[in-house]
Amino acid sequence: MIDRYTRPEMGALWTDERKFQTWLDVELAACAAMAQAGRIPRKDWTAIRRKAGFDVKRIRKIEAEVRHDVIAFLTNVAEHVGPAARHVHKGLTSSDVVDTALSVNLVKAADLLLADVDRVRAAAARLAEKHAFTPMIGRSHGIHAEPTTFGLKMALMYDEFGRARARLAAARETVRVGKLSGAVGTHAHLDPKIEAAVCKRLGLRPAAISTQILQRDRHAEFAAALALVGASVERWAQEFRHLQRTEVGEVEEFFGRGQKGSSAMPHKKNPVVGEQLCGLARVLRGHALAALENVALWHERDISHSSAERIILPDATILLDYMLDKLAALVAGLKVDAARMRANLDLTHGLIHSQQVLLLLVEKGVAREDAYRWVQRNALEAWRTGRPLLELVAADADVAKKASRGELAACFDLKRHFRDVKRTFRALGLSAG
Fold this sequence. Notes:
With 433 residues, this protein is mainly alpha-helical. The radius of gyration is 30 Å and the shape is elongated. Helix content is 63%, strand content 5%. Strands 1-2 form a two-stranded antiparallel ribbon. The protein has helices at residues 8-12, 16-36, 42-51, 56-66, 69-81, 94-130, 150-175, 192-202, 217-244, 272-293, 304-332, 338-345, 354-363, 368-385, 389-395, 397-400, 405-410, 421-428; strands at 135-140, 143-149, 177-178, 205-206, 251-252, 335-336. The two termini are 40 Å apart. It has 18 helices and 6 strands.
């Protein structure tokens, strides 16, 4: 999968180069704020700003000896800056830099994911509006229920990913927090005004209170939001997989020229993208569980969360970015077979209109239990014989006493089911023509 990953923006957020650059951004923002407050001489701040840099290979070499990534980073920065580097990291602890930088990158990751969701919604909206009145069977328990439209189905997808967007936006705000409060969060060595200035420069809010770290319920919420968006991806991937089954055949994933579906069976066109997405959603849920486990840390901090986060946060954001990109492409290229949808509507010879007949009889004064029994016995006969339900209920002596054939025939009109489509679309900001 990863070798075919064609969206490098998200992956670039999690490279060592980007990590160290963001660390340096935090350190430089702190130095700038301290210089403004008179805590760093102007000439030293000028030297820091002009010379600050790093070399990834050199940092790795130093880390192999000191076995501490932030110290290795600071050592290398000092090699670039010279004597003025004594002011770099003044009053800070490692997590001030690492956690604040992580927040910066999580916010940027969230922005990319929000853009992905917008593409999914745009693809769903196009299909919804195109097929607002394309009739198809609705299913409950996998069994034919009553008529709906494919446009309504896609409008539902559009709406669901609107909630996905809101969840990502909320999670973005939850992690849009920084801290420079020191080793146990008391601001013993750095004025909170410095923290506030740094966070403002980086587009973050200062945490109202923290320990040595930002509390991990924030990151757990972020990972859970990603997993929940992944669950929505899976929900629709699974829907399209079901609709592509040979017995249904109402939609089909794009199948390219030269594509092959099976090494053994040349006729196969499988819903492979949908299947991939369903499997990957399980991985996201696993990452969310690990993030939840990271919430409970010892006292003001331990580092049991760190090793897990180095895997789950890059992997989860890259993975969801990939999944949303694939889902948007799947929807945009979806082949919709309106004729097959209509044929499937007629498979049960009118059984899907049984509720309308039931309601008609109730309106005519028949007790609901009696009406249900009359319609059900004819419905079961239709199942058994394949005779049209309209023919059977019209010939039923009990039913015929209460409703004319014309009144019964009106119960089998599809238009009754579609009279609310335009209102529903308007409520979602979509056009139903």
